[in-house]
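Help needed: design a sequence for this.
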């Protein structure tokens, strides 16, 4: 149910309009002049106002201007008059009047104007509510990440820099074969020390047969045991010294070493232990 304020100095028009609009299901408030209209507007803001132009204290156009200037024109206003000119109607429209009804008012014209006015009032309230919500809701703050510039590329030299001079103690400024032999020597010396000179474990780590490992150590001149003995320290052309007494089982790391050493001697893979 909508509330409609009827402002007219003629009591008969007020009563007629009140009866018609009440039959349409609306709540009707009536005011005989501008002062009463101001008071009712303040007490209970209506959904629609039917405002007569010619009134004894203040005319309807002046009251319309007053509400507009004070920001109180929050409801649609339909002007009514039986003596107004076109200029008056245009002026009222300029100050916010929604429509103009000329007296005597036809019933259909009245009902259509009231229906349009109430729809316009609902739209105005919806827009005000949306505007209030938008004003009360802070906009999401956008966090602007500082721009991260990619690291500047180092200027490329026309002549590429040489690689490191050595890697793991192996000089790279030598032929590939020599560098490979030097690396293998470092490799086997490291694992011999790590495995406590166990040939079985070194062969397993290197992925070699033990006989092949002996042959490789002889070729590289790698120390076989912690006592400083070396494999392959002599060639067939060199004079041989008397072979030292073979180590007992207690001097060898494990039985696999003893078997491999005997097998290597029998096959000629190890010339001696010196």
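Sure. Designed sequence:
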């Amino acid at each position: 149910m909508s509330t409609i304020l009827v402002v007219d100095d003629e009591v008969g028009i007020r009563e007629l309009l009140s009866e018609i609009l009440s039959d349409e299901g609306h709540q009707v408030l009536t005011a005989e002049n501008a002062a009463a209209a101001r008071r009712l507007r303040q007490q209970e803001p209506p959904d629609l106002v039917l405002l007569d132009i010619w009134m004894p204290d203040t005319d309807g156009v002046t009251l319309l201007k007053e509400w507009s200037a004070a920001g109180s024109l929050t409801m649609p206003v339909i002007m009514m008059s039986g003596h107004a000119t076109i200029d008056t109607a245009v002026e009222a429209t300029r100050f916010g009047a929604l429509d103009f009804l000329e007296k005597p008012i036809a019933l259909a014209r009245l009902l259509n104007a009231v229906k349009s006015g109430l729809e316009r009032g609902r739209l105005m309230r919806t827009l005000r509510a949306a505007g209030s919500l938008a004003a009360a809701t802070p906009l999401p703050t956008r966090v602007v990440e500082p721009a991260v510039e990619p690291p500047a590329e180092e200027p490329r030299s026309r002549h590429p820099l040489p690689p490191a001079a050595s890697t793991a103690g192996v000089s790279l400024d030598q032929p590939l074969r020599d560098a490979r032999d030097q690396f293998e020597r470092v490799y086997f010396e490291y694992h011999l020390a790590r495995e406590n000179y166990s040939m079985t474990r070194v062969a397993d780590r290197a992925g070699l047969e033990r006989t092949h490992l002996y042959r490789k150590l002889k070729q590289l001149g790698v120390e076989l045991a912690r006592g400083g003995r070396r494999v392959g320290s002599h060639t067939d052309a060199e004079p041989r010294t008397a072979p030292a007494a073979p180590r007992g089982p207690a001097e060898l790391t494990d039985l696999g070493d003893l078997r491999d050493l005997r097998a290597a001697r029998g096959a000629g893979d190890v010339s001696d232990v010196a």
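The longest helix spans residues 107-136.
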